[in-house]
Structures are given as structure tokens and as C-alpha cells.
Amino acid sequence: MTALRRLRLVESEEPAEQAAGPALRVAIATQDLKSLNAHFGSARRFALYDVTVRGWSFVEAVTFEEVSDEGGRHRTDGDDRITPKVEALRGCHLLFCLAIGGPSAAKVVTAKIHPIKIAQAQPIEAVLERTRAMLAGAPPPWLRKVLAASGVTAPEPSFADDED
User: Fold this and answer.
1) Most buried pick, 49, 122, 152, 156, via CB within 10 A?
2) pTM of this prediction?
3) Cβ count within 10 A of residue 8
């Protein structure tokens, strides 16, 4: 059985949704809560943030005791390490990680979480800022689809600047 611990912030003067409209919940696979630096299966922690057009706020950190070794082989002893991670991330809209295997990706997508692989480790703040900027501008089609499916309203793209 996979052990799970959650660390949540209790105090909040103004929830992100009230402060800047609906929030997009983002999960980031991390080993140290500072950088996106883990594969989905081997991530000891996931940092969850609410991202709006104005910024982001930390929601919680989810920690797992048992993780894979990134060897690319699945365990056969019947201990499912993926389902508890997917269940812990329910309610998230996006999942950022360095890599995710096919069976794990299928479970994540079934939970209505859009997985995004990032090629290199980078600070969590850089991932959050790019997400915020996409929300504030004209979100790409894949993000508009995620937003529509989750009921979060995205800004309409403006084509006024394209006129000559």
C-alpha cells in the first residue's frame, strides 16, 4: 500500500477564485517542492497550485512514501502505485512532469487531468508563470479544451491586432 501525506495551507484571506476569477488547478511532479524535476511514477511529491490570470497560490503538497525507480519496468507484485497518485490529484486540470508512461497517462486522462511533459527540469515558478501568461493571453487550443471541459472560462482570443 502506498502511504500518502498531505500538507495544506489553512489560512487564506481571499480564495484565488474570488480574487481573480476561476482558477486552473495545476499539479507539478517534484522531488524537492522547488523545481519540476520528477517523472510521474517516481515523484515523491506533487505541488498543487491554483493559477489565475493575476498569479498563483499554493494549495497543498502531496507526498508519497513508495515510488518507482524510473527503470521503465512495472512492478508485478500487485502493489498499484499509480492509482493512489491519480486519486490524490483528482480535481487538478493540468499535470506537469518530466515523463509519464502510457498506462499512467491513460489513468490521468481518464481522471480528466491533462498531462504535460516538460523536457528539462525547471523552477516551479517558471512553470506557473508560463501557465498564468497562457491564461492571461490567448490560450492555445489544447488549453481552451481543458478549460471548457472543466467549466473554467477562458478569455476569447482577440483578432483585432491581426487586421492591416
Assistant:
1) 49
2) 0.79
3) 10
